[in-house]
Every structure is written in structure tokens, then in C-alpha cells.
Design a protein that fits this description.
The complex is a heterotrimer of chains A (512), B (180) and C (377). Chain A is built from 14 helices and 17 strands. Chain A is α/β, with parallel strands linked by helices and 512 residues long. Classes of the chains: A alpha/beta (512), B mainly alpha (180), C mainly alpha (377).
Chain lengths: 512, 180, 377
């Protein structure tokens, strides 16, 4: 199959050797789980349980609301101790509504669904994937069912399965493709059925030799798939190969236009771990309540690929891997390129946590930024074809419109620019800041519009009320006046009729 | 010598006349500009700019008597839009941090008098007589009017709590001019 | 909290500004040592004076600007600027040429613009050009090489006299020697000859001595002597990825092409490719001066244009201009064009065309492969 290339990119040292040959092991079930009700992009799930409720595993803790949302399930049998605002795995550790579950000693088994998933229609499959709370497991955490539905409407022809895993340290997808490839392929088949697409292409970076051999063998095995329906291709190892737009370009040679979606090109992309989650949900009957996490980094004495129930605290993973007492320089969730910094380890694992990386001091560069020397390495590595140095300059001066005119919104925040920068300028943070400000402005403008509407309607209403009052008053006055006039007239008439002899003078006299 | 003086004098007179004609015939209709600016302002007449309402503010802006940064509820976004509209230079880094404060009812103080509800220009306060009132954050422009009218000092201004939806990265802290 | 918040990436490449500068200096070292050996003590004095003065000026400016002095000094940029300046000065120039040159380079050429990264023009070339137009005598007083420790070379004391004594002392002690050593550069010779109406074969009856130019035992500045050592250093930098290949290649290719063309038209008036590529500061300009990151464009195409422009201007100045060598003027002129080049030549943004419009979704993509099968049975 002909493959293509994408612009720029970098070759960070992969640092996967410590974990790539370690089989996935299950982390022992912790005593308590902290399950956040928002583990995905979109509307947070709404709690369906209250403190004190017993739960069985797989039971819905939070139901999805709105179009873009995903439910959250109980990862274990136990009791909901409380529902609190608990810190989430986020750089600012913002609190999120979280169900705390006291796990019971005995766990019930998973029960496979009665119907054969391969007998379901595409819409039914999408519904079941939605019900299982499956989201993009590569880290984006966009609800998978929404993506599948959109792709169904666009009649995509190709499903791309992302096995790139181009982030350093991470090996969870690699292990999955080595150890659970058959199951994952079933998941891919189910997704293909759901989409009604013709072919699936599993894309793996060429540094994962075993995973590639394994998948190629399985794909050509008629027992697993129709010939040529699911293909495995190897792409050169280059960061950010695993980024959606870049991978689509690698496979199809086409660029997703700015503002458009992959589905406009007739393709849709899902992660290998998402495919595996689809298999587990539809065949095993296990909704998305656990994931494989690579625990790595130089500060971790015994790194591992762990299968972890969602809601387990990061500290538990680190302890299991031999790291006690926050004995690290920097803690990350996800890979070191696009992953997030974590302020502490008392944070839960969520659906998008592909890795927990504890960096040692030797691995962390604390160089102070120095002035930009315009070496333009950032320009040559930018996969989006931007001018990072120029954009950062504008954002530093708070000229966000100028940064936007240079393509700030096309930045995929891959971090290639900041990686190569010899001056160690935090370019990505400038772009995060700039995008945040643009977003805030947009919201502010919207709010201004809304409040202006509210204000004018209130003004109109007040005016209307005033007018009504005034009218009512005027009416009353007029009525009174009319009444008075009528009375006066009547009286006059009466007077003039009954006492024609009385002169106006006498009436005047009477009035005195 | 004389020829030059006369030429220059006539040139000056002629061009001056042309300029005068242009100023009359190509004059931008002021009222139109005022209307347009008024449409950009929040229209809540909150008075935070120190002027008695948005229409007056628009008039002052159009006349060049008020800075484009006058409107706190409008924030940087409005300042920028106004600067473009009026063609003035604006250094946004000099604009103070966005005044994104919103009103909050202090639960122990509110007596449910509904005065703030009646006064709020954007209907951002909801509640009923003798019931605890509440602020709809999305509709509050932070105009401070409710604070002044509340008989029990039961409303304060506060910054909305950051959530996953509205949290944003801070600007990198840099010691010196690093970029560009 | 807020100030400890760090955004990714959390792993960074090992390249730093100081390391980049260090590599460039390392690549310059062989040619510098060869030049210092050829021109002896006066050249060594001048080199040290220029470098020390530059560092002092840099430290002073950083302190005045309230910036981190130590970090600024150790990034190596001032050292490199002074180094390049020293390599473009006449080796026996008096001490004040070095000090004034450093002042012009560091203070006027760089710090006035806001320091490292903000200067529009290559600081070393700003200094060289300013010195050349202000002190044409001292700046064109070239000496024949007199290798260190050789019989006719000035000793350490004589060297000090030449550097610090100024004209008076030098006249007394070294008058004869200076006279004996003074001589124009090859480019200067040829230029003067042409202006007097001579042809190339009159001027250089034995033909062009390529060996002298390549290995470097002719007169000229330190950076003009050995084209081979400069080229070796430059190739090392390109191979290491410290500088990009674009500017050297386009610059040298442009000069070579022009030389070939005009040499073909009239070999007696226009010297050949070898003469242009290996004479004067051509190699230094191509690999070390025009490639200065701060003052060259951002993109590959922009750099190709920049290099070609430098090459064209160098050839024009050398052939028809008033000066025998045009490197400094050419680089400065192209530096002035760099913002314009960067404005017009930009990479195409992913998913957009060059006019910033989103790409069109080609309808054939969807319709070409119809998903008529629908629900795959």
C-alpha cells in the first residue's frame, strides 16, 4: 500500500525500552475508587446514584446528557460512600463531581450480552457503544459513539485504527497489539459494521516490530477477517505520527481542510485501545471501566504496563511500581510531549490516562528560557506549517488577532516547536494561553450579545409596564373625567329641567 | 522669485479649497457611527464607565472623548473591536485584567425583598418575594447596581470559580523579552 | 500554584543556544589557528583584544539593560560575533580598530536593537563596514603572511609594537618590516589592475594560484586565507545540523553560475569559478556570516532566496562595484530584505491554501469510493 509523508516532525528519543517487553498485568483492586463523572469531552455525566447506594460493577454511576456526552460506570462492586467535588487529573487539579466507591471484597463476574453483537445493525451498535461509555482512549476522550454516528452520516469508506503511539515512554498500545490483538481485531470488525465502511487500516509505527508482525499475521488469517478488509501498515517512527491529521495524511495523502473533519475525506480514525474497549463492551459485556496504563519514567523503580480500574488514584499505581513518597521531579499523565503535568498524585486515573510518567531530575530540564535567536527550527519542524516564533511574539504582546491571522487555531499543540527550541521558550504554553484568550473573548462577546438582548427586552418590558400603567392611569382619569362630566351634565340637565327659575347666580351662591 | 511665491500661494489656496470641499462632501455621518458603536456596547446602561448609559458612551466614543477601554463588562474583546472600528491604536497589554466579576448573593443576608431583581438591567437575578435570590452567572454583567440597592448588603462581587470548561492556561512567566 | 504550572512538552532536545554557538566556534577554530599562525603576534593580539573588548561591552550593556549578565555572556553570542569580526579585519590592524569594531558590533549592531535575537543586521558585518568606510587606510593595509617563529616574522615585542604603538612606533621599529610585508589581497590586486585597463593574463601571467587560495598563504584577513579549512568547518556544521545547507549552497551556486557565465563571455575580463569561490571571504560568508540565524529568513525557500541574493550582490560588487570584496555589503543589504522575505515567503499551513483559505473538500474523495454496501453483511 502506498504511504505518504507529513511535514515537519521530530525524533525524540523513544525511551520505551524499559516497558515495551513487560506484559500487561492487572493492578489489584484498590480499596477505594474515585470515579469522576466527567472523563470525556462534552457535557459532564449526571449522577444517578446517591451516597449510601450499593453498586454492582458495570452499573451506571452517571448518565450522559446532551448530544456530546458519555455515561460513567462503576468499575467495581461496592458502596457509594459519597459524591464530592474531587480533584481531577488536570494541571490545575480542578475539582469535578466524583463518586467515591468503597470496593467490596467479592466482585461479580461480567455477563456477556445475550444477543450476538454481529447481528446488530449499525445504529444499534453505535447505541451500545454509547451506552458503554466508550471515549477516545488515545487521550482526546471524545465520545466514540458520536464520532461513529457522524462518520455513518458521512458514509465513510475507511476506518483508520491508530496504533502509532509516537509519544515517548508509552507502551500500553504496543502491548495491547501484541497481547490482545485478536480481541482488538474483533472490535475493529464491530466498528466497521457500525460504520458500514469498506476497509480498516491499522497504522503502526515501524519501531513496534512485534506488534506489526503479530497484526500482519492475524490480518492475513482468514479466520479473523475477510481478506484485504483489515490491513496493517507500518509507518516511519516520527512524532507526531499519532496525531489524527498527520496520520490521515500518512495513509491517504490528503490534508483535512481547516475547519473540516476527517469524515469529509471519507475516513474516520479510532485508537487501538478504543477498538479493544468496543470488543470488551459488546462481546464481554464490560463497559469502559478499566484501561491499560504505562507507568514509566526514570523515577519509577519498577515500571509496568498495568490494567487499572478507572478511579484508582495515581499514588496507588506509583506505589505498586515501587515509587513511594512523591520521590520524583515531575509527574505527568499521558506522554511527555502532549501529556499534562500533575501537581500531585492524589488524582484518579480516567478514561484518557494512557500513561503515568514520573520523571527523575536527570530527565527534567529546568533551563531558564533565553532570548529567541530566530534559528527557525520551530518553523522547520512544525507539522502544521506555522511560524511558532512569530506567533509567540504576537501572543507575548497580547495581539491575539495577529496570532490568529498567522494560524494560531491551526496549531495542534504537538509541542515539536518547543521540543527543538534551543532557547527553551515555552512556545506551547504561549499557544495554549493565546487559544484560551481567544476562546474567552468569543465567550465574552457571546455573553455581551446575550446580555444586550436581555437588557433591551427588560427595558422594553419596563417601558411596556410603564406605558400600561400610564395608559391605565390616563384611562382612569379620562373615565373619571367623563363620569364627572356626565354627572355634571346630568345634574345640570336635571337642574335646568326641574328648576328652570333658578339662575346661575344663585347656584354660584350655593356653591360658596 | 515672484513666480515661485505666487505659484506656491495659489497651489496652497487651491488645495486648501479642495480639502475644504472634501471635508463637507465626504463627511462621515456621525449619527451612523454613533448608532453602530451603540450596537456594539452591552446596552445595559450599567454606568460602570462613569457615563449615564450606553447611548451617551457611544456618543462620547464617536467624538473621541472617551477611551475605547471604557467599558468593563465588554472587556478586552470589546476594547479591541472598538479600536478597530474607530481606527485607534490599542496596546492590549496596558488594558487591566478583564473585569470578569459577577454578583453573588450572600445566602445568610438575603431577605428576599426583590429590589435587586427589579433593578437588574439584564434579569440576571432570579427569585421570589421572601425567597432567597440567586444570580444567573451567564447573564450578569457585573454592573454593581444590585450591590448599591441591597438593603442588607447581601450581594458581593466575586470571580467565577474556574471549571474544566472555562479554565485557561496562564501566560508564561518570562523574565525578559524572549521572543522576537 | 500558577507559577509552577508548566505546559508540555516535558522532554526537550539537548540543543541550546550556547551549544549552537560553541559548535560554530569549534568549526572556526582550524581556520583561525592557521590564520594566527600565518600572521603571527600582531594578529593574535588583535584577536584577543577584539574578543575581550566585545565581552566587556556585552557585559556592560546587559547590566545597563538589567538583564542576566552571566547567562548573556555565556550564551557565546558576543564571543562569536567578536570572533567573526576579528576574522574579517586586517591581521595587523592596530588595537583600537579591534576595540572600536567590538563597540560597533556589540553596542551599535546588537544591543541597541534590544540584544540577542533582535538585531536586524549581522553585527560583525555592521562593524566591518563601519570601520571600512571610516578608516579606509587602516582597513585596507594588508600584510603578506609571515608565519609565527619564521625568520622575517615580528617577534612578541615587535608584535606588541605593531598592535599598540600605532603608526609612530611601528614606523620606527617596524618601518622596514611593514613595508616589506604590506601588499594587497588578490581580489584587490585584480580589481586595481582591471581599473587600469589590464587583462587577467597581464595581471596574473602564471594563471590563478588556486593552491594559495585554497590552502591559504596569501594576504588577507584571517577568514580570507584558507578557503579549505573554512569549508571543512562549514561542512561539519551542516553535517551536524547546526546550520542549514540552504544558504551556503544557494550562495555558492549563484556565484559559481554567474562566474561561469561571464567567464564564458570574456575570460580576460571575468575570472573563473575557482577564483571567485576560493578567493576572499567567500567561504566564510557562505558558511558563517550569511548563515547567522538572527538575520536570515525562517523558511527553506526564504533562505534559498536570501543566499542567492547574497551571491548575486557579492558578484556584482566584486565585478563592477567600487570595492574589491563585497561580502559585508551584500550580507547587510540582504539582512535588510530579510523581514520582507519572511513576510512574503511562508510555509503553507496544513489544511489551508497559501491565501489562508481552508482547502476545498474535493467531492471525488467521498463519491469515488461509494459506501453503497451500507451495512456490511
Amino acid at each position: 500500500m502506498k504511504l505518504f509523508s507529513f511535514r515537519g516532525g521530530i525524533h525524540p528519543s523513544a525511551r520505551k525500552e524499559r516497558t515495551q517487553d513487560l506484559a500487561i498485568i492487572s493492578l489489584p483492586m484498590p480499596a477505594r475508587l474515585y470515579v469522576p463523572l466527567q472523563q470525556h469531552i462534552g457535557e459532564p455525566a449526571v449522577a444517578r446514584v446517591v451516597a449510601g447506594d450499593p453498586v454492582v460493577r458495570g452499573q451506571i454511576l452517571g448518565g450522559s446528557v446532551g448530544r456530546i456526552s458519555a455515561p460513567v460506570h462503576a468499575p467495581a462492586d461496592g458502596t457509594v460512600v459519597e459524591i464530592i467535588e474531587f480533584a481531577s487529573p488536570h494541571p490545575a487539579a480542578l475539582p469535578v463531581t466524583t463518586a467515591v466507591i468503597e470496593v467490596s471484597a467479592i466482585q461479580s463476574p461480567w455477563v456477556a450480552p445475550l444477543e450476538d453483537p454481529f447481528s446488530l445493525s449499525g445504529a444499534e451498535l453505535a447505541h451500545q457503544i454509547q451506552q458503554a461509555g466508550i471515549v477516545g482512549m488515545g487521550g482526546a476522550t471524545f465520545p466514540s459513539a458520536v464520532k461513529l454516528q457522524l462518520a455513518r452520516q458521512h458514509r465513510v469508506h475507511t476506518l483508520i485504527i491508530n496504533g502509532g503511539e509516537c509519544e515517548p515512554y508509552l507502551t500500553c498500545d504496543d502491548r495491547l497489539m501484541r497481547e490482545r490483538a485478536e480481541q482488538m481485531l474483533l472490535g475493529v470488525e464491530l466498528m466497521l459494521r457500525c460504520l458500514g465502511a469498506e476497509q480498516a487500516i491499522i497504522v503502526v509505527e515501524d519501531n513496534k516490530v512485534e506488534a506489526l508482525t503479530n497484526l500482519r499475521a492475524l490480518c492475513s488469517d482468514p479466520h479473523y477477517s475477510e481478506p484485504e478488509r483489515i490491513k496493517t501498515v507500518s509507518v516511519p517512527s516520527r512524532y507526531p505520527q499519532g496525531s489524527q491529521k498527520q496520520m490521515i495524511q500518512s495513509v491517504t495523502g490528503k490534508e483535512v481542510p481547516a475547519g473540516a473533519h476527517a469524515t469529509d475525506l471519507g475516513v474516520v480514525m479510532h485508537n487501538v485501545a478504543t477498538a479493544y474497549a468496543v470488543y470488551e463492551a459488546l462481546v464481554v459485556g464490560k463497559p469502559l471501566v478499566s484501561r491499560i496504563v504505562t507507568v514509566g519514567g526514570g523515577a519509577v523503580p519498577r515500571p509496568a504496563n498495568l490494567e487499572v480500574p478507572l478511579g484508582t488514584l495515581v499514588a496507588e499505581l506509583l506505589r505498586y511500581c515501587g515509587l513511594e513518597d512523591d520521590n520524583y521531579e515531575r509527574l505527568l499523565v499521558g506522554g511527555p510531549m502532549m501529556g499534562q503535568w500533575l501537581p500531585h498524585a492524589q488524582l484518579p486515573i480516567i478514561k484518557g490516562s494512557s500513561g503515568i510518567i514520573a520523571l527523575s531530575e536527570a530527565e527534567t530540564q529546568m533551563d531558564l528560557p533565553s532570548p529567541c535567536i530566530r534559528c527557525a527550527r520551530c518553523v522547520s519542524v512544525c507539522p502544521a506549517g506555522l511560524l511558532p516564533l512569530e506567533m509567540a511574539k504576537r501572543i507575548r504582546k497580547e495581539d491575539f488577532s495577529a496570532a490568529q491571522a498567522l494560524g494560531l487555531s491551526d496549531c495542534i499543540a504537538c509541542g515539536s516547536c518547543a521540543y527543538v527550541c534551543p532557547s527553551k521558550i515555552p512556545l506551547v504554553q504561549y499557544f495554549h494561553y493565546g487559544k484560551g484568550e481567544l476562546q474567552a473573548r468569543k465567550q465574552q462577546e457571546k455573553k455581551l450579545d446575550r446580555t444586550a438582548d436581555l437588557a433591551s427586552s427588560k427595558a422594553l418590558r419596563v417601558e411596556a409596564i410603564e406605558r400600561q400603567k400610564a395608559e391605565a392611569a390616563a384611562l382612569r382619569k379620562a373615565q373619571m373625567a367623563a363620569k364627572k362630566a356626565a354627572e355634571a351634565a346630568a345634574q345640570e340637565l336635571l337642574l335646568s329641567q326641574s328648576k328652570p327659575e333658578i339662575t346661575p347666580v344663585s347656584s354660584e351662591e350655593r356653591g360658596d | 522669485m515672484f513666480a515661485a511665491i505666487i505659484t506656491l500661494a495659489f497651489l496652497g489656496l487651491g488645495l486648501g479649497y479642495l480639502l475644504g470641499v472634501a471635508a463637507i462632501h465626504l463627511k462621515v455621518e456621525e449619527p451612523a457611527l454613533v448608532k453602530e458603536i451603540e450596537a456594539m456596547l452591552p446596552g445595559t446602561n450599567c454606568g460602570q464607565c462613569g457615563l449615564p448609559g450606553c447611548p451617551i458612551g457611544a456618543k462620547e466614543l464617536a467624538a473621541g472623548n472617551a477611551p475605547v477601554t471604557l467599558c468593563p463588562p465588554g472587556g478586552k474583546a470589546l476594547a479591541e473591536a472598538l479600536a478597530i472600528k474607530l481606527g485607534v491604536e490599542l496596546d492590549l497589554s496596558t488594558v487591566a485584567d478583564d473585569n470578569r466579576l459577577v454578583a453573588q448573593v450572600i445566602q445568610t443576608q438575603c431577605i428576599g425583598c426583590t429590589r435587586c431583581i427589579k433593578l437588574c438591567p439584564t434579569d440576571a437575578i432570579v427569585g421570589a418575594p421572601k425567597q432567597l435570590h440567586n444570580v444567573v452567572i451567564d447573564a450578569c454583567t457585573g454592573c454593581n447596581k444590585c450591590i448599591d440597592i441591597c438593603p442588607t448588603m447581601g450581594i458581593k462581587m466575586c470571580r467565577p470559580k474556574p471549571t474544566l470548561a472555562n479554565w485557561q492556561w496562564p501566560k508564561p512567566e518570562t523574565e525578559q523579552e524572549l521572543v522576537g | 500554584m500558577a507559577n509552577t504550572l508548566i505546559s508540555g512538552p516535558h522532554t526537550l532536545a539537548s540543543a541550546t543556544v550556547s551549544r549552537t554557538m560553541l559548535w560554530v566556534m569549534l568549526a572556526l577554530t582550524p581556520a583561525t589557528l592557521w590564520g594566527l599562525y600565518l600572521f603571527g603576534w600582531p594578529a593574535i593580539n588583535l584577536f584577543l583584544i577584539t574578543v575581550v573588548a566585545a565581552l566587556l561591552f556585552e557585559a556592560g550593556c546587559l547590566r545597563l539593560a538589567g538583564k542576566r549578565v552571566k547567562a548573556g555572556l555565556f550564551d557565546g553570542s558576543a564571543l562569536l560575533t567578536a570572533w567573526l569580526l576579528a576574522m574579517s579585519l586586517p591581521p595587523w590592524a592596530p588595537w583600537w580598530i579591534g576595540v572600536l569594531g567590538s563597540f560597533l558590533a556589540i553596542v551599535v549592531g546588537k544591543q541597541v536593537f534590544g540584544g540577542l535575537g533582535h538585531n536586524l543586521f549581522n553585527p560583525a558585518m555592521v562593524a566591518r563596514v563601519a570601520l571600512l568606510v571610516s578608516f579606509p587606510l587602516q582597513m585596507t593595509l594588508w600584510t603578506q603572511p609571515a608565519a609565527l617563529f619564521s625568520a622575517q616574522a615580528p617577534g612578541f615585542i615587535d608584535g606588541l609594537a605593531i598592535s599598540f604603538g600605532g603608526a609612530a612606533l611601528a614606523n620606527e621599529a617596524m618601518h622596514g618590516a611593514l613595508d616589506a610585508f604590506s601588499g594587497a589581497t588578490l581580489l584587490g590586486d585584480v580589481k586595481t589592475g582591471f581599473s587600469l585597463g589590464s587583462t587577467l593574463s597581464d595581471l596574473l601571467p602564471e594563471g590563478i594560484d588556486h593552491g594559495s587560495m585554497v590552502i591559504g598563504y596569501g594576504s588577507g584577513s584571517l577568514g580570507e586565507t584558507s578557503a579549505l579549512l573554512i569549508l571543512a568547518g562549514g561542512v561539519l556544521l551542516v553535517a551536524l545540523g547546526v546550520i542549514s545547507w540552504t544558504i551556503p549552497v544557494s550562495l555558492l551556486a549563484t556565484v559559481a553560475l554567474l562566474a561561469l557565465l561571464f567567464n564564458g563571455i570574456n575570460p580576460e575580463r571575468y575570472p573563473g569559478v575557482g577564483y571567485h569561490l576560493f578567493s576572499g571571504a567567500m567561504m566564510l560568508a557562505a558558511f558563517f556570516i550569511a548563515t547567522d540565524m538572527v538575520t536570515s529568513p525562517n523558511t527553506v525557500v526564504g533562505r534559498l532566496v536570501f543566499g542567492a541574493g547574497c551571491g548575486l550582490l557579492i558578484y556584482l560588487i566584486r565585478t563592477w562595484g567600487g570595492y574589491p570584496e563585497g561580502v559585508a555589503f551584500a550580507v547587510l543589504l540582504m539582512n535588510a530584505l530579510t523581514p520582507l522575505i519572511d513576510h512574503w515567503i511562508r510555509p503553507r499551513i496544513f489544511g489551508r491554501d497559501r491565501a489562508f483559505r481552508p482547502l476545498q473538500v474535493t467531492s471525488d474523495v467521498v463519491s469515488k469510493e461509494p459506501s453503497a454496501k451500507g451495512e456490511h453483511a
